[in-house]
Write a structure and sequence with these properties.
Strand order of the largest sheet: 1-2
Shape: globular
Number of strands: 2
Helix content: 55-70%
Radius of gyration: 25 Å
């Protein structure tokens, strides 16, 4: 879905991804509440309705046109140019079947800059490694908020974690309304820097909140972390989408999301282990 949104939004990739992620978070927000209502009606409803929603998603996808760029004209390899600046073209000797190619010279023409898919080394696209590391490390912090806020809230004297989770979700949704357009207008890297700064300051506030039992610091901290995530993710996707050939965009974005999944999958475990061993102040400082 991320790849398709960048396919159809040339020059507006960050805006497209931001809009897509808003839909994702609306689903995340509505899902638990819907699940509680359905569970009260019985476990059959609790599983049948999500299955029906998945079928609806399949129907919508079935109606979507393919967005992959056409490979027409994109298969020409880079030319082999001789010392005289003319391109060497393999030709068969006239009248001889299966003869070895005989070089012929024609004026050299450059291959399209992003025409030919490059080699995909291993399971990860090489272009996704640097932005992937960024998303992995930030994903650790993101997951620590979603996984541990309930325990953290009680540890600093809050009655419950509702304020932290609501602040985190609302901040992401509101900032995403403008973050994609900002990345498209000013460049994705310029938006990443303030986003990462929000992570640093936000977790600093959470760390201070753990030492001083200050709920306002905790709320401000999760708001800044949510702001950082809302700024960085669309910008990273847009940056990567413009730095790989069209035919490799799916592989590159798939690798990027894999990095994010690793960070989010292990973030709660890592930060939770640090909190058990040293307390939340040191865990969030890390």
């Amino acid at each position: 879905a991320v790849t398709a949104s960048t396919d159809v939004s040339a020059g507006r990739q960050a805006s497209a991804v931001a809009s897509l992620s808003i839909a994702i978070y609306i689903g995340f927000a509505a899902g638990p509440a819907l699940g509680e209502v359905l569970l009260d009606a019985g476990t059959t409803w609790a599983w049948t309705v999500p299955a029906a929603l998945a079928a609806l998603a399949g129907a919508v996808t079935w109606a979507m046109p393919e967005t992959r760029p056409s490979p027409a004209g994109h298969s020409r390899p880079a030319p082999v140019v001789g010392e005289d600046g003319w391109e060497l073209v393999a030709q068969s000797a006239p009248g001889v079947t299966g003869a070895a190619p005989v070089p012929a010279s024609v004026p050299a023409t450059p291959a399209p800059a992003t025409a030919r898919p490059g080699p995909l080394r291993g399971f990860l696209h090489p272009a996704a490694i640097r932005p992937g590391i960024t998303l992995l490390t930030l994903g650790v912090g993101y997951a620590s908020v979603t996984a541990l806020s309930a325990i953290y809230a009680r540890s600093i004297g809050m009655a419950d974690s509702a304020a932290l989770y609501a602040t985190f979700a609302l901040t992401i949704l509101v900032v995403r309304l403008v973050s994609g357009r900002a990345a498209d207008a000013y460049g994705p890297v310029r938006i990443m820097y303030p986003g990462i700064a929000c992570f640093v300051v936000g977790f600093g506030l959470l760390s201070l909140g753990a030492t001083g039992a200050a709920a306002p610091l905790a709320v401000g901290g999760v708001a800044l972390v949510g702001t950082g995530w809302a700024l960085v993710f669309p910008a990273l996707v847009a940056w990567l989408a413009t730095h790989v050939p069209d035919a490799e965009r799916g592989a590159a974005l798939g690798s990027l999301i894999a990095f994010m999944d690793i960070g989010q999958g292990g973030g709660g475990l890592l930060v939770g282990a640090l909190a058990d061993a040293f307390g939340f102040a040191w865990a969030y400082l890390v």
